[in-house]
Every structure is written in C-alpha cells, then in structure tokens.
Write a structure and sequence with these properties.
The chain has about 375 residues and is of the alpha/beta class. It has helices spanning about 15-25, 35-45, 60-65, 80-90, 105, 110-115, 130-140, 170-175, 215-225, 240-250, 270-275, 280-285, 315-325, 330-345, 360-370; strands at about 5-10, 30-35, 50-55, 70-75, 95-100, 120, 145-155, 180-185, 185-190, 200, 210-215, 230-240, 260-265, 265-270, 290-300, 305-315, 355, 375-380. Strands 7, 8, 9, 10, 11, 12, 15, 16 and 18 form a 9-stranded mixed β-sheet that branches.
C-alpha cells in the first residue's frame, strides 16, 4: 500500500482529533495547515509524522502548495472554503473530504470528479456524516420508510464558561439563526430559526432535553440519495434554554452581524469580536461536564409490521477528555472523518465522483468506527 499522505486544513478541536487518528495509522504522513499559529503549536505536540504550515484557507495558492503530493485533503476549517479547496484538489488529483457545507453546489462538480477518477465525500463528520450513515443503515433494515428524525443531543455545562459552542462557534451561530428547513411530501419547507421546540427523550445518559429545528445537510441529501425514500426528514439540535435565549439576545443586539462598524479609530464586525471572546472547542476540553450524542430515528415497516429504528452514539465529555484529550462533540465529529479518510486511502471505498455519506457501505463503516471507540447502538421497537 505504501505511505499514506494526508493534508488537513484546520487544526481546531475537530482537526486535532482527525490528525491524532491519522498520525497513529501505520505508514502515514500528515500535513496540517491553519491560519492560527497557536493551533499549529498544539498540533506539533501530537506524536507521529506530522508537518505544520501557516495557511490561509481562502488563498488558492497556499492551499495548492499544501496539498500537492497528498492522497487526500480534509477540510476541517470553515465550510465557506469547500469549493476553493475542492477546485485545488481536483487540479492536483487529490481526493477530498469535508465535514459540512453546501451539497447542492458541490454536487454540480460530480462529472469532473468522475472523469478524473477521484472521489469527494461531503459532510463526513458527526452530523452530517455519522448521522447519514446511521440513517442508511436503519433504512436498509426496513422494507418501507416513512419518516426520519435526526436529533443532536447534549447536556453540556461549564463552571468556567457561561456560553460554550462544542464545535466551530462561527458555524454553530450561523446555523442557529438560519431559517429551519425540513422535507415533507416531496417538498422542502421552511420554519423560523430555532422554532419547533420540543422535549426529546434520548437514551441515557442524556435523557430529556429541549431540541430546536435547524437547517442541516441531512434534510437536503437523505430524501435524494437514500435507496428508500422517506416522506419526512427533519433535524433538531439540543440547546439549553439559556443558550437559546443567549443566541436570540446576540442576534437582537446585532452581535451576529458580519458588517463592519466603527469603534473609535478602527472598524470591526460585531461577530468577529464575539467570536474572539468565545472559547474554542479545543479550549473547553476538560473544562465542561455532561454528554453529547447523535440519534437517528426512522419510522417505517419491516415484515409487514410498523416499527421504529433508533441508531445512536453517545459519549460523555469526561470520557472523551480522559481517553482522547477532546470534548465529546469534537471526538464524535472528527472520528468519522478519520475513519472515512483511512478507509478511502486504504482502497476500501471504491466510489468515484462527488458523494454524500449515505452512499457508503454502512455496515463496513460502522464496523470500522467501533474500532475507534465509537459506541454505536441499534434499537428496534414495534409500534
């Protein structure tokens, strides 16, 4: 097989989880680029064949230099760089994975990737990513599918930080204030941001939490790419009520605006100031308690009986920190990415073109993910 050559763009909490997994692989070389030199110094402390480079992910020349000679590039930075990095990867014949983004826009490049004999896998983190794979596994176990409900659960608290985002604060806040989308009867429909609040009972140790409707990649891809088509798909994210209130306050005060305002002699965007003050996911590792998890609930029919499949993975923040020096959300997000990257580099994913995670073999993927300390459970209940 020879040396596996990876490039990772983004060295935050999730990027660090990815790099640790890849660096532990036999005969693997990992190049990491990030605009934040402090993050690069943290990456440099990870054992393995790792090289670091200051990198502006918005500069195509810098991206091109980093990924040249790699087998695979992973965008673990902001989704707004997906198309730029995809273009550079295609130009240099490098396979590609990202963790979130804009699947409809990226899918337009499918024919070019197929012609090149390369693969780009979109949204391969926790959700989207693992959630899509779990949805595919659940659907494959049913004869007919009616509804798919995706629930991202967490009960995180911190005595040190009054407000925490367990993944990129920029992405988290953008998702929270965007109109919520859901799929019903062949149409995409829209609700207000953070609407549809409900109390959802997750398996222990999460239990009952408030969840809010969000726009998410799974809502857009599952109705299209699953082999059995559901009539309904939605996504809801768990938020503590005080977190939801804080986000609404931020928005009401204009703190989520990217528009520049003058403050004394300088111009800054309110969002940039807020993001500067909020702790990063890597900073909160070891300083929060609680749990995080992803659950996919699938309603349908098997052997003539109505049933519900629940597929989920849950991890405590304490366990994630003690074993992996990460918060649980970072671990649940970065680990599926690394599993996919290793499977692809090892020739165990034979797809070509631009694909989404539900196009992968779910049994093989779940079996491999379990080797990386992801506890994935499947429960079936007749209704």
């Amino acid at each position: 097989m020879g040396l596996l050559k990876f490039s990772v763009i983004g060295g935050g909490g999730v990027g660090q989880v990815i790099v640790k997994h890849l660096a532990r692989a036999t005969d693997a070389k990992v190049k990491v680029g990030d605009i934040d030199r402090a993050r690069l110094r943290e990456i440099a402390r990870i054992s393995g064949d790792i090289s670091i480079s200051p990198l502006d992910a918005g500069d195509p020349h810098e991206v091109g230099r980093l990924i040249t000679g790699s087998d695979l590039v992973i965008n673990a930075s902001h989704p707004r760089f997906n198309l730029l990095i995809m273009k550079q990867a295609l130009k240099r014949r490098v396979n590609y994975i990202d963790l979130a983004g804009y699947p409809a826009e990226q899918m337009k490049h499918d024919s070019k990737w197929r012609k090149a004999g390369l693969v780009a896998i979109l949204g391969m983190g926790e959700d989207p990513g693992l959630s899509n794979v779990l949805a595919r596994r659940g659907v494959d176990m049913l004869d007919r599918v009616s509804e798919i409900r995706i629930r991202d659960g967490e009960t995180s608290t911190s005595e040190m930080y009054p407000f925490v985002a367990l993944f990129s604060p920029d992405v988290f806040l953008e998702e929270a204030v965007s109109p919520a989308r859901y799929f019903q009867n062949g149409e995409m429909k829209t609700n207000l941001p953070m609407s549809g609040r409900e109390t959802y009972r997750f398996p222990p140790p999460i239990g009952e939490v408030s969840v809010y409707a969000m726009d998410h990649e799974e809502v857009h891809t599952l109705p299209v790419y699953l082999p059995k088509k559901p009539n309904f798909v939605d996504f809801k994210l768990a938020l503590r009520d005080e977190t939801a209130s804080a986000i609404k306050l931020f928005q009401g005060l204009g703190l989520l605006s990217r528009k520049l305002v003058r403050v004394g002699p300088v111009k800054v965007s309110p969002l940039s100031v807020l993001l500067h003050l909020l702790p990063s996911p890597s900073q909160i590792a070891g300083k929060i308690s609680g749990n995080a998890g992803i659950l996919v609930e699938i309603w349908g029919e098997a052997s003539g009986k109505q049933c519900v499949q629940k597929l989920y993975s849950i991890m405590t923040h304490d366990e994630a920190y003690e074993k992996h020096m990460a918060n649980a959300t970072s671990y649940l997000t970065g680990t599926p990415t690394a599993v996919c990257a290793l499977m692809l580099a090892q020739g165990r994913i034979e797809s070509e073109g631009v694909i989404v995670p539900e196009c992968l073999n779910p049994e093989s993927f779940i079996g491999e993910a379990r080797k990386f300390d992801l506890e994935i459970r499947i429960e079936k209940t007749e209704v």
